[in-house]
Amino acid sequence: MGPGWRAASAALVGGSVAIFAALRRLALAVPQPAAVRSRPGRVWRWRNLLVSFAHSVLAGLWALFSLWHSPELLSDIQDGYSVSGHLLVCFSSGYFIHDTLDIIFNHQSRSSWEYLVHHAMAISAFVSLIITGRFLVAAVLLLLVEVSNIFLTVRMLLKMSNVPSPALYEANKYINLVVYFAFRLAPQAYLTCYFLRHVELQGQGAFLTANLLLLDAMILMYFSRLLRSDFFPSLRKGSAGRDVDGEKFLID
């Protein structure tokens, strides 16, 4: 990638940050459920999750479209390239940067430190992809996770708002489990096997492989929390009476 293309990519990332800052302002106008308004610690979390939901819908559908439109990309994980995939990586990089700043500036770093670790990994990996133009297909495959995040975010919004509709939560619970396997665990497992078998463990390859393995551990940890919370509540430990207003991950 030449200097001009890199500068254009940086401008796209900056534009994405501005888009999500605008969405955050729009989220202020969205009516908040009484259960959210009555707990000050939940107000920021509710607004943050709405922005996260918007990114998940846009990025998840975008990743699906990119792979559907150019299926030949899957035959070249390392050097395959598409303009759509490049723009998607820039777009999601902007979201991760915006969300990191939102967490820090609103003093939520302590309760959302796992997100900060995840975002640092994603931003550093995506920047390396944008600069080199390599492994963009791997990034698009990883961004299929945003399809899963749509239902995961709906789950958290329902829990926060105390919506009196157990049927809605139950339906989303099972859909969430299916898409978790299809769009989070399956692509992650495929890419991990691919990187360990075909990518040289040096330079960018080593950096991305290390990132991928750490992400594997995080995803399995979140999956175990999800199973305990929604399917095996008797296995939960130490959560009774806990105030989780500041918790952003699958704790309860």
Descriptive keywords:
single chain, mainly alpha
Structural summary, described in words:
- There is one protein chain.
- This protein has 252 residues and is mostly helical.
- The protein is built from 9 helices and no strands.
- It has one domain (3-28, 39-72, 80-229).
- The protein has helices at residues 3-27, 34-37, 40-69, 83-105, 113-132, 136-142, 145-161, 166-198, 203-230.
- The N and C termini lie far apart (45 Å).
- The relative contact order is 0.12.
Mean pLDDT: 90
Could you list the spans in which at least 5 consecutive residues all have pLDDT below 50? 239-252
Radius of gyration: 18 Å
Strand content: under 5%
Indicate the percent of residues in helices. over 70%
Question: Given the structure, what is the number of helices?
Answer: 9
Report, as a whole number of angstroms, the end-to-end distance.
45 Å
Structural class: mainly alpha
Largest sheet, described in full? none
| String of helices and strands | HHHHHHHHH
Which of globular, elongated, flat, extended, rod-shaped describes the shape? globular
Number of E-type strands: 0
Number of domains: 1
